[in-house]
Design goal:
6-stranded mixed β-sheet; 30% strand; globular; binds inosinic acid; binds magnesium ion
Length: 183
Amino acid sequence: MRGKIFGKPIITQEEMRKRIKTLGQQITTDYTDKNLLMVGVLKGAFAFFSDLTRAVRLPLHVDFLIVSRSGAKGKSTRSVKIISDIAKDLSGQDVLLVEDIVDSGATLTFLKKKMMARKPRSIKCCTLLDKPRRREVDVTIDYVGFVIPDQYVVGYGLDFENKYRNLPYIAVLDKMGERTKKT
Ligand code: IMP
Ligand code: MG
């Protein structure tokens, strides 16, 4: 990567900080007296997950899933595969899946089904970003950071061809795969 690589944010670091604080407070309230296991879906959720866990004031547990998708891009029929898994037995655990973004809804639907089969006490989902206009599979999301329009975004864990994950904010890519500045 050469030159100026950081574009103008559509969600700033300050907006992110405030929203995560609020989400953390909500989760703290909802999971008091529960057995919270926060599961980060990698790679995309790594930055959000790290900040969100530290905004929750409870003695929670953390774990991670690594997923990959194959097949034609943008199709809900693309198959989702777990590359690295968490414990199989989730009995007595209140699982909170933490995603970077929900697009077609296929990944989250797949993961919820997989986790449900392991009989947790409860399962809920939290996503930093939600693109509802792209939804192909109906899936309930319990906590949403930001609802965004149908645009390809990068930063704060989200990538384009494995780049831009380290941007400290969310920026938009244009059709050429370049970041565009918000005017
Ligand atoms: P879904 O299964 O179609 O909901 O897609 C979810 C996954 O696609 C996310 O976890 C991301 O890895 C990826 N994805 C969807 N939209 C974007 C985007 O705008 N930027 C980066 N990754 C995205
Ligand atoms: Mg993801």
